[in-house]
Write a structure and sequence with these properties.
Elements (H helix, E strand, L loop, with lengths): L2 H8 L1 H29 L1 H14 L6 H16 L2 H33 L5 H49 L1
Helix pairs in contact: 1-2, 1-6, 2-5, 2-6, 3-4, 3-6, 4-6, 5-6
């Protein structure tokens, strides 16, 4: 079976998870590029921070430097909450699909009894497909989010070291 067949069998929740996955991977690709550029431009960013301090007539003390670096890092963090939200709600949506699928299976059993297992198998199928889809969406988003947070921490440390070295 191909992917679209599974998505069709998973119903509306599987389609929603597919859309979330597309949005999430778009953000991951975008943040990968942005953070790669930021990591390779640490020297230029540190010089920019020093120039900003000089232009605003602020002394180059530790609180002012950390404030400027925090501002730069906060700009780089933009979009990471989207990845985190997708990673968090995807398993919950999968669980919702599980509950709805099991409910559908029990409704089918209550209408026609346990004589024919194919009657309730579609509900069980929806339950399993949405559970798997929720986990498939969530796992790479969790990994990407945690990787980006670690990368931002290393960029922040490198910026602090570079700025302090040049002040």
């Amino acid at each position: 079976m191909d992917l679209l067949t599974y998505v069709e069998r998973g119903g509306a929740i599987a389609y929603f998870l597919l859309v979330l996955n597309i949005i999430g991977f778009s953000v991951i690709l975008w943040k990968s590029i942005v953070l790669y550029i930021a990591k390779s431009n640490i020297l230029a960013t540190s010089l920019e921070i020093i120039d900003n301090l000089k232009m605003s007539n602020q002394s180059a003390n530790i609180p002012n430097i950390e404030s400027k670096i925090s501002t730069k890092i906060q700009k780089l963090e933009f979009g990471l909450n989207s990845i985190k939200i997708i990673a968090t709600i995807s398993p919950l949506l999968g669980l919702l699909g599980t509950v709805l699928g099991i409910l559908s299976a029990f409704d089918a059993i209550s209408v026609s009894g346990l004589g024919d297992p194919t009657i309730f198998s579609s509900g069980i199928s929806v339950a399993l497909i949405t559970t798997v889809a929720g986990l498939i969406v969530a796992i790479p988003h969790y990994i990407a989010y945690n990787y980006f947070i670690g990368l931002l921490d290393s960029i922040e440390i490198a910026l602090k070291e570079e700025v302090l070295k040049r002040v």
